Amino acid sequence: MPSFELVALGCGGGPGEHNLSSYLLKRYDAHWSEGALALEAGSGIGALNKLLNDQPDLFGCPQVKNDGPSPCTAGEVYSWIKCFLLSHAHLDHISGLALTASTLGGNRTVFGARRCLENVENLFSGQLWPRLASWSDDDSIPLKLRELHNDAKYHPLFPGVSVRTMPLSHGRYDGERTYHSSAFFIKHESRGREFLFFGDVEPDSIATEPHTRDVWRAAALKIPNTLDTLFIECSYPSGTPDDMLYGHLNPEHLVAELTALAAEVVDARTRTREPNSSQEWDSDEEPVHARKRQRRDSAATPTLRGVLAGLKVYVIHCKDDVKGAYTDPINRVIASQVRALVEAEDLGAEIIGVEQGMKILI
Ligand SMILES: [Zn+2]
Ligand SMILES: [Zn+2]
Which of 61, 143, 218, 220 is most exposed, with minimal Cβ within 10 Å? Predict the structure, then answer.
């Protein structure tokens, strides 16, 4: 039985405002009306309205009532959101949150790293947008901000679901300062199963502050038994030069990252077979130690063939092809480019391009 059900309310990377990062998530063993999590909040009510027009039963509707079938409205489904989980506060990830905040009613929790939530707080300063978010419990405003720490622990999001947060690099601002995003390990507590969701991310090979290797290391030993699903961005198509990536991935860099993951999986499996060789790494380990270890490993690179078998990689956040360079939709173009590279490396992972409105069982 699956652990989670996820609907892609929006899965693009802009600039089209109709399909921005926004995923609704629930435990598979509960109904949507019992509580949903919004993983990112780019597209909101407008996109939901359109999806429900096309697929009225996407969220288990229509429900049978006294007077017969009655499809759920977008407002009704959106009201089931108990909390928001944000990787960073770029507008394509929070615009739906802003536009719906005053109509949600009741209290909702917004989870994220400190810097992300400070930016959300600035958005709701009363200038750009009314003051609808606060750190305070006492404040009678709809959005409560709750910081998630990079402490290698899982913290409850809503009943039965918890999250571990790790930082990512997502380009630079003010010259050379790293702009941070987050990766989330989202866990179904009673089943012990989880999936890994990346916010916007740049490759370690470009980042001045590389973080993806730490995330791969934290995931490695769980693949594929308790973690078989990964969501990761690939904003631009093959051949996009590094100086045009602006803190994002293209297929070449994504496959280099998946190769780094495969190497970590091999290393983790080797270490569990040889318990005296080294203890499992923690993400809090000094990066310099990690880098030394990395160099030592590269002296005897094992084969990575088939190492990621059983892992589903969902490709998200493809930027719209506004110039019309491709005849096929850009998300399919990019996913097929990633798939071809993964098959050439024979890593074994399954590559799936996410479509808006797609229902994914995890
Ligand atoms: Zn984005
Ligand atoms: Zn971003």
Answer: 61
